[in-house]
Amino acid sequence: xxxxxTNNPPLEAVIARELLMQLIENSNLDIKINQAVDxxxxxxxxxxxxxxxxxxxxxxxxxxxxxxxxICYCLYQNKDLVGYAESIPVVIKIENxxxxxxxxxxxxxxxxxxxxxxxxxxxxxxFIRIDNNEYPFCLFQTGIPYFYEKLGCKVIENKFxxxxxxxxxxxxxxxxxxxxxxHATAKWxxxxxxxxxxxx
Length: 200
Hints:
Blueprint: E1 2-5, E2 13-15, E3 20-24, H1 27-30, H2 33-46, H3 56-65, E4 71-77, E5 80-94, E6 97-109, H4 118-131, E7 138-142, H5 145-149, E8 153-156, E9 160-161, E10 178-182, E11 193-194
Parallel strand pairs: 1-3, 6-7, 9-11
Antiparallel strand pairs: 1-2, 3-4, 4-5, 5-6, 5-11, 7-10, 8-10
């Protein structure tokens, strides 16, 4: 059985499957050190971390310091972490208007568990916050748009900049080829998007 467990009762839900999905808010307070290590190891399977100068302890510390307001979505098979994603509240600027959106990042499923619909389960748990009108959009980058299009997302064509990058503010802070939003039927503004931070 998949259960979504959160310290925010209105988000509680139960979905029939064979895994336990645990939704943990405020990761810097709720994620235990051993869980953070497991998350970093899982992410390393998809995005190898070649930084050998930093210790595991330093990388764990960065995990807690990174992205204030981050919510972690951890998918477990028994006690083994097999999937992960994070959502981040972000205030962006589009031309002369400010917009608070929910960012999605770090979606990752262990190679042994891919192709079973678990990535979809994690993403849909994030998108619930859009469906519940907590945010007007979920914004993210990806190299596999077709996966997200099946979940009701669409590619957007805006130019992205990062005004907080003092060396090169006009470089795209996203590194993947596509920027997308959920929901596909939402009216997304045109114009240059200032992410005002590094990509996620």
